[in-house]
Design goal:
Distance between the termini: 46 Å
Radius of gyration: 19 Å
Number of helices: 7
Shape: globular
Number of domains: 1
CATH class: Alpha Beta
CATH architecture: Alpha-Beta Complex
Number of strands: 13
Order of helices and strands: HHEEHEEEEHEEHHEEEEEH
CATH superfamily: tt1808, chain A
């Protein structure tokens, strides 16, 4: 039991707090249903802690790095029949919030549960978020906490401008991430794909990306 949970359970007015929280979550749930009903296919939006958040168009640096990562990891996943990779438009339903990660990987078990009509995806096994000025606080805050709490095994925070990747993992028995690596050069080894060791340049540069793709095909 975490210290915060123990403190919460020790509160003498716990029943009143639970009742108030339950009422608030019921109201929030109705807003979440409306969000899911109203969001259009061409929009990128998320529902976080009762708030509907719509995203503006991404910068070229973001789009460039995203395309390189998707092309590389997507090719590896398809070639090895290792689940599915989705990006931008996969709305993932967590217990309270709905997120559209920049890149999300679903292992074979979760991939097998998806149908052609799926619109709300399960919780991914591996998520990558590419920083932008508008999203950095959430990427390092509520998403870092929520992804870990819901068992997203691996989480990368990518800085396209500084060309760095932070790799977060969950230690066995833990409920929070630890920073496994922060890399600006060398190779990164995805925990989700143990046979891969990716030169960092392949995730930021076209030529290096193509060279590495040829090596894994």
């Amino acid at each position: 039991m975490s210290p915060s949970t123990a403190e919460f359970l020790a509160a003498p007015d716990l029943p009143m707090k639970i009742a108030a929280a339950s009422q608030a979550l019921q109201r929030e749930g109705k807003l979440r249903e409306r969000f899911r009903d109203e969001i259009e296919p061409h929009e990128k939006g998320e529902f976080i802690n009762g708030e509907k958040i719509m995203h503006s168009p991404a910068r070229e640096s973001h789009n460039h790095v995203s395309s390189l990562i998707v092309g590389l990891l997507g090719t590896y996943v398809r070639a090895n029949h290792a689940g599915i990779l989705r990006y931008e438009k996969a709305l993932c339903g967590f217990s309270r919030n709905d997120y559209e990660p920049d890149i999300a990987w679903f292992g074979p078990e979760k991939a097998a549960s998806l149908a052609p009509e799926t619109t709300i995806y399960p919780i991914p096994d591996f998520i990558i978020e590419i920083l932008s000025p508008a999203t950095e606080k959430r990427d390092r805050g509520v998403k870092l906490e929520d992804y870990a709490a819901h068992g997203v095994t691996e989480y990368w925070i990518v800085d396209a401008d500084k060309r760095t990747i932070e790799q977060y993992l969950i230690a066995e028995g833990a409920e929070v991430y630890h920073l496994a690596e922060k890399l600006g050069h060398g190779d990164i080894k995805p925990f989700s794909f143990p046979s891969l060791a990716i030169p960092l340049a392949a995730l930021f540069e076209d030529t290096a990306n193509l060279s590495f793709l040829r090596s894994i095909l």
